[in-house]
């Protein structure tokens, strides 16, 4: 889910993800994207499903 507040035509943008919730099976982050003048240009929220990595097979 993203809300774009203003456009950026040139220069660098920076994204910073801040955890909102870190549980056993899900994690939610708020991502703030700012321009070179430190003005927020986009706000996003990301929810991830957390899974265990598959174990390598013995061989």
TrEMBL record:
Q: Name one GO molecular function term.
A: acyl-CoA hydrolase activity
Entry keyword set:
Hydrolase
Name the source's superkingdom. Bacteria
User: What is the official name of this protein in its record?
Assistant: Hotdog fold thioesterase
Question: In this protein, which residues make up the domain named Thioesterase?
Answer: 1-42
Q: Which Pfam families match?
A: 4HBT
Organism taxonomic ancestry: Bacteria, Bacillati, Actinomycetota, Actinomycetes, Kitasatosporales
Q: Give the SUPFAM superfamilies listed for this entry.
A: Thioesterase/thiol ester dehydrase-isomerase
Q: Does the keyword Hydrolase apply?
A: yes
CDD domains found in the cross-reference section: PaaI_thioesterase
Q: Where is the signal peptide?
A: none
Q: Which organism is it from?
A: Streptomyces albus
**Any keyword Hydrolase?**
yes
């Amino acid at each position: 889910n993203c809300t774009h507040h203003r456009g950026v035509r040139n220069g660098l943008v920076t994204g910073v993800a801040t955890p909102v919730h870190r549980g056993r099976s899900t994690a939610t982050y708020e991502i703030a994207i700012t321009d070179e003048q430190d003005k927020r240009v986009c706000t996003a929220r990301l929810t991830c499903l957390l899974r265990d990595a598959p174990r390598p097979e013995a061989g």
